[in-house]
Amino acid sequence: MCPLQPGREPGMLRQCARPGLPRPGFLLPTAAGIIGPMNRSDLFVALAERHPLLTAADAEAAVKTLLEGMTQALAAGQRIEIRGFGSFAVVTRSPRLARNPRTGEKVAVPGKRVLHFKPGKALREAVDAARERV
């Protein structure tokens, strides 16, 4: 049974979480193979299916807590490193002068803080190995 939609078989997470055709984009591992993009609700379902003692509500709370903690840490300017997965850091871009391509006039672009993700070695190797299989 699908933990989010009782009565549906858990064979394919994509169909369990969101009926219909998978959209192109990120890949979602399921019991039937790898299909479509993964979003937050798909992550809840995957977590609930992998851990039968965890309810869908508990899986949702765990994912939301993790994402909220990461968001708060990054907003405070902290760096997050998850070994084997990668690291998130906030990078400050300084103000600069740019050029409007249509008019050619110079435009002042203010400085800003942007999020930077650097994948870990294990993630890079897993993605590269999956590309070779496809």
SSE diagram, text form:
Blueprint: H1 13-17, E1 28-30, E2 33-35, H2 40-50, H3 56-75, E3 80-82, E4 86-93, E5 96-99, E6 106-109, E7 112-119, H4 121-133
Antiparallel strand pairs: 1-2, 3-4, 4-7, 5-6
Helix pairs in contact: 2-3
Keywords:
single chain; 134 residues; alpha+beta; HU Protein, Chain A; 2 domains; three-stranded antiparallel beta sheet; disordered N terminus
- What is the averaged pLDDT score? 79
Rounded Rg:
20 Å
- Overall structural class, as computed from helix and strand content, comes to alpha+beta
Tally of DSSP β-strands: 7
The backbone outline, from C-alpha atoms, is elongated
User: Which segments are poorly predicted (pLDDT under 50) over 5 or more consecutive residues?
Assistant: 1-27
Enumerate how many helices there are, as a single number. 4
The fraction of residues in strands falls at 15-25%
Share of residues in helices: 25-40%
Looking at how many chains there are and whether they match, the oligomeric state comes to single chain
Report the span from N to C terminus. 30 Å
What is the number of independent domains?
Answer: 2
* Widest sheet: strand ordering: 3-4-7
The topology string of helices and strands comes to HEEHHEEEEEH
Main sheet makeup: 3 strands, antiparallel
